[in-house]
Design goal:
Layout (H helix, E strand, L loop, with lengths): L9 H8 L5 H8 L11 H8 L4 H14 L2 H13 L1 H13 L1 H9 L19 H8 L5 H20 L5 H26 L1 H6 E7 L1 H4 L9 E9 L5 H20 L10 E2 L12 E2 L1 H10 L3 H7 L3 E5 L1 H16 L7 H9 L22 H15 L11 H10 L5 H25 L10 H10 L6 H33 L10 H10 L5 H12 L4 H18 L4 H15 L3 H9 L1 H11 L4 H8 L18 H14 L3 H28 L10 H32 L5 E7 L1 H4 L9 E9 L5 H19 L10 E2 L12 E3 H10 L3 H6 L4 E5 L1 H15 L7 H17 L18 H15 L11 H10 L5 H25 L10 H11 L6 H24 L4
Helix pairs in contact: 1-2, 2-4, 4-6, 4-7, 5-6, 6-9, 8-10, 9-10, 10-13, 14-16, 18-19, 18-22, 19-20, 20-22, 21-22, 22-23, 22-24, 22-25, 23-24, 24-26, 25-26, 25-27, 25-28, 26-28, 27-28, 28-31, 29-31, 30-31, 30-32, 31-32, 32-34, 32-41, 39-40, 39-43, 40-41, 41-42, 41-43
Length: 998
């Protein structure tokens, strides 16, 4: 072709119009002598332009023509331009698959497999594929024959002759024929082995379900039996050799490439188990050792090769075990794990491109369908299908899944699987990643029929279908439950009450009957409230089931809804604020404390929808609000009622934030820095209690003296209160100190101070709906025998004359929390020389501290308590770590300013920085202290009352485990980890506290 310089040829323009990306290169290919007879044929260009990648199709065509023998080229070209079926099939394959183009370039005569189709060729089965592979006598010839069959299959696929389900079934049938051919080659190579045993090949996974991908591991299980008169051990050895050879024939790479991996890892014991077992050995394993996921895998078991009778016996024998799996003891926790998306091992840069494992991916659909099959297939044989799409259709027809939801999932699954097929077909490589390159995305989009703007259209459709799957993945478990109780659409198939109860039980609800009553109360009727509840509940039920106590979550939601359901903002908040509903579900189902706090004032639920609502309020902010409320109140009782209401609201804020951070949400993973979680809770509760004490103090003073008390008065926080380390169930340890104002007698000041202390304690413990704040002053001089409040001079005289070493140690945590700031600072100046003695502690003092600690360990441990699990006094627990840190503070605080802190973790870090303790030991102590503190917090959150050891109730200890980040069924791991971490901490304590180290 010749053109005027500087002007594009008409061919160039036509190529551009027909979708070629590189028209110049395409023009050069058309100019080759090999295509001289067809280059100007408009039919050819039209057909190339209809392919997924015209450039790729043209390059592939040129390679085939050039590879053909001289006399055969024109036959191919003539057929190409005169026979539309061949043209569409051949060019369609070449434009979609570089790998099949390579095959045709190596074996150019194979194009003739696409020339004619009889009626039977439109939908071939195993028998037709076996005929196509019949001439294969070795691995190389099997690969060539396999590719030839795959060529015809792919041609039907890309031309639309077969749909997704038919293509996947044909791929499975081709795999079946290939496994039979490979086994035949292996038997021919070892006839003596074949004579000794019966061997059946059972397909699993997508091959078993007749829904295979273009390139996928073919999962199998081997079953063997000895032939009559043959020793079983020798027969199993022979069967193993045959099976291994068959696997190599399919999996190994030769000059003709590979077919696919044959994967036998779904067999009993996985890689560690024998490759071939007898039927009785299989059954013994499944009956005694198998886990739920193994029965889930057996859903798709199908005998495909080898001894057909033995294969059928295997499938028949395991079927009752599969459909009885839901009755097994660990089914519920296994189900909870199965329902979680398996995304942890996907690199972050890939998760958004994962078609299979990513959020809204294929596995979400497959796991959901398989789970519902296991739950309801016990009593409904129509669900016994290995095909995801057939099973989904059966679930909809039986009312187990809503028809609209099933239709949406069916459409999404077909689209995502079609994407997966086209991605794998391009290079015949096993992948589930959506490509990133523009050219790859364009080819992919065009192969799915998107021609106007294929990349944009593809991304839009993909995200839409993934969003549908992600949204429906959980809802399909629960929406039919609502249909069963709401009964709004009489013509719709729906779950029976029995089936609904079975599903709820399988999903973790201990009292399905009560759960159904709650659902009926929440969703029945035609009111706007009921309609919104029906929209919310399918998602909420999934979140409840993700917890350790789904029943409590649902009951709590009903109570909150009963209390707030008539307020216009409540349901709108849950419906419109995406985080609010999930946050509420987490809070209601994680234990008793947070729901109890919420039920006393349900309007606090607004906290859960505010992006800043879960951030703890600062102490200054809290004091400002509380003191203003006290100033407006008419008397002390009503003032402190408001104060305690604020405390309850803020405790709910703190518990909710703690639970949500510990559990994580769909959009925000769980907080991994457990020390930060503990610090946030400790600071928030300590600040809240300090503000509450300040409010009670102001209320007590105003009720009797107005704005000015006759004596200056300060409250000193002690223990965990002063250390900003309060847990939810901690009392407020304090000291009270006063200093008479000028002109006020000591007697009057003492009476006023004593009255204020008594009134504060009374007000904070009045019986109301709000949780009390217990004030504990037992750390005061002389303990319970001494006066509740002293002057600063009295403290000075006592400490100078009578103070014991344990009292100096207790003062390490002293910090002013309320009252007169100047008096508080003076108290700290008074005690600093006691708690940080110049030159440190003497040997006698160190011995006394060690003696007291040893005595406490032997005398104060509750009778019957397990010392390895007691968080406060047990081995490596809070007491061990704190006394070790405090000993370093008293020995070195005079010289190391960083040690002069009331906070345990801060002091430990300072000791490490000052090289007073090795970093490894400091890390060990810190880890144990954080863990023990989290366990105490968890116990209070779960039980609603404080405790220093793990609960004995299975559901409660499971809830503690969930809070700590352990999956269902891993309570034993939690206890083992606790013992291991605290045992290591105790070893450090033995050396650093009791040993020679100083």
């Amino acid at each position: 072709m010749t053109t005027v310089p500087g002007r594009r040829s008409s061919t160039f323009t036509r190529l551009l119009r027909h979708g070629f990306i590189d028209p110049s290169a395409a023009e050069q290919l058309l100019d080759l002598n090999a295509l001289a007879s067809v280059r100007s044929d408009p039919v050819l260009l039209e057909a190339l332009g209809a392919t997924a990648d015209p450039d790729l199709a043209l390059r592939g065509l040129v390679r085939i023509v050039e590879a053909e023998a001289e006399g055969e080229r024109q036959v191919l070209l003539d057929t190409l331009v005169t026979a539309k079926p061949l043209r569409d099939r051949l060019l369609g394959v070449l434009g979609a698959s570089e790998a099949l183009g390579d095959h045709l370039a190596r074996h150019p005569r194979d194009w003739q497999a696409l020339v004619t189709y009889e009626a039977v060729d439109l939908h071939p089965g195993v028998a037709e594929f076996e005929r196509g592979l019949a001439g294969a006598v070795d691995p190389d010839s099997l690969r060539v024959a396999y590719r030839r069959c795959l060529l015809t299959l792919a041609a039907r696929d890309v031309c639309g002759t077969t749909d997704l389900a038919q293509t996947a079934a044909e791929l499975a049938d081709l795999a079946t024929a290939t496994l039979r051919a490979a086994l035949a080659i292996a038997r021919t190579a070892a006839p003596e082995d074949a004579a000794q045993c019966r061997l059946a090949v059972v397909a699993m996974g997508k091959c078993g379900g007749r829904e295979l991908n273009y390139v996928s591991d073919v999962d199998v299980i081997f079953v063997g039996e000895a032939r009559d008169g043959v020793d079983e051990t020798k027969a199993m050895q022979a069967a193993t050799r045959l099976a291994a050879h068959m696997m190599r024939i399919c999996s190994e790479t030769t000059v003709e490439g590979t077919i696919w991996e044959v994967d036998a890892n779904l067999r009993p014991e996985g890689r560690n188990g024998p490759l071939v077992r007898t039927l009785s050995s299989h059954l013994a394993y499944y009956q005694r050792w198998a886990k739920t996921w193994e029965f889930q895998a057996l859903l798709k078991a199908r005998a495909v090769a080898g001894d057909p009778e033995l294969g059928a016996e295997y499938v028949e024998a395991v079927s009752p075990l599969v459909w009885g799996a839901a009755d097994r003891e660990n089914f519920v926790p296994d189900v909870q794990k199965m329902r979680r998306r398996v995304v942890d091992n996907i690199p972050a840069d890939r998760i958004e491109r994962e078609l299979k494992l990513g959020p809204g991916g294929l596995r979400d659909v497959e796991f959901a369908v398989q789970l519902l099959q296991l739950v309801h297939g016990r009593s409904d044989a129509s669900l016994h299908s290995g095909s995801t799409l057939k099973a989904l259709r059966a679930l909809a027809e039986g009312g187990y899944v809503g028809r609209a939801d099933a239709a949406q999932l069916d459409e999404a699954y077909r689209f995502l699987r079609s994407m997966e097929h086209r991605i794998q077909l391009y290079r015949l490589r096993r992948t589930h990643l959506v490509p990133e390159g523009e050219a790859d995305l364009r080819r992919l989009g065009r192969s799915l029929g998107m021609r106007t703007d294929p990349v944009t259209e593809l991304n839009k459709a993909w995200k839409r279908h993934a969003s549908v799957v992600r949204r429906l993945h959980e809802k399909i478990f629960y929406r039919p439950l609502l249909d069963a109780v709401a009964q709004l659409a009489p013509a719709e198939s729906r779950l029976s009450a029995k089936a609904a109860a079975i599903r709820l039980e399988a999903l973790g609800y201990a009292d399905p009957a009560a759960a159904l009553r709650h659902l009926e109360a929440l969703s029945s009727g035609v009111t706007r409230k009921a309609a919104i509840q029906r929209t919310l509940l399918p998602v909420l039920l999934g979140w409840f089931a993700d917890s350790a106590d789904p029943d409590a979550g649902l009951l709590g939601f009903r109570k909150v809804s009963d209390a707030l359901g008539k307020t216009p903002w409540y349901l709108r908040l849950l419906r419109d604020e995406g985080a609010a509903a999930e946050n509420l579900a987490r809070v209601l189902s994680a234990g008793r404390l947070a729901p109890d706090l919420l039920m006393r004032a349900p309007e606090a639920v607004t906290i859960l929808g505010d992006p800043e609502g879960l951030t703890p309020r600062t102490r200054a902010h809290l004091e400002q609000e509380i003191l203003a409320a006290v100033g407006r109140a008419g008397d002390a009782e009503s003032a402190v009622a408001v104060v305690r209401g604020v405390r309850r609201r803020e405790l709910f804020r703190t518990t909710a934030a703690d639970l949500i951070d510990s559990y994580g949400t769909e959009d925000n993973p769980a907080e991994q820095d457990h020390g930060a979680l503990v610090d946030r809770v400790g600071s928030a509760v300590s600040d809240l209690n300090a503000a509450t004490v300040a409010g009670a103090l102001r209320a007590a003073v105003r009720a009797r003296w107005g704005d000015t008390l006759p004596t200056r008065f300060a409250v000193i926080g002690m223990g965990r209160f002063g250390g900003h380390e309060l847990s939810y169930g901690s009392d407020a340890d304090v000291l009270f100190v006063h200093r008479p104002r000028e002109g006020v007698s000591d007697e009057e000041a003492a009476r006023a101070a004593g009255t204020v202390v008594g009134e504060m304690r009374r007000l904070l413990q009045l019986p109301t709906a709000d949780p009390p704040l217990l004030i504990d002053a037992d750390l005061r001089p002389e303990g319970k025998s001494g006066p509740l409040v002293r002057t600063l001079k009295s403290y000075e005289a006592y400490y100078r004359r009578w103070s014991l070493v344990w009292e100096s140690q207790a003062l390490l945590r002293a910090e002013p929390v309320a009252g007169d700031e100047d008096l508080g600072r003076d108290f700290i100046e008074l005690i600093d020389p006691l708690r940080y003695p110049m030159e440190g502690l003497g040997e006698d003092a160190v011995r006394e501290i060690r003696r007291l600690k040893a005595r406490m360990e032997s005398e104060r441990m509750p009778r019957g308590a397990d010392p390895t699990l007691h968080t406060k006094l047990g081995r490596g627990g809070l007491s061990d770590v704190e006394w070790t840190v405090q000993l370093m503070q008293m020995q070195h605080g005079w010289a190391e300013p960083g040690l002069r802190t009331t906070r345990t973790r801060e002091a430990l870090a300072a000791a490490c920085a000052a090289e007073l303790i090795p970093a490894e030991d400091a890390q060990t102590l810190d880890e144990a202290w954080v863990l023990a503190t989290r366990v105490r917090n968890a116990v209070m959150l779960v039980r609603g009352r404080p405790g220093d050891t793990f609960p004995s109730d299975p559901r409660e200890v499971a809830a503690v485990g969930r809070y700590l980040g352990y999956e269902p069924g891993h309570v034993g791991d939690m206890l083992d980890d606790y013992r291991r971490i605290t045992r290591r901490a105790r070893a450090v304590v033995e050396e650093r506290f009791y040993g020679a180290a100083s």
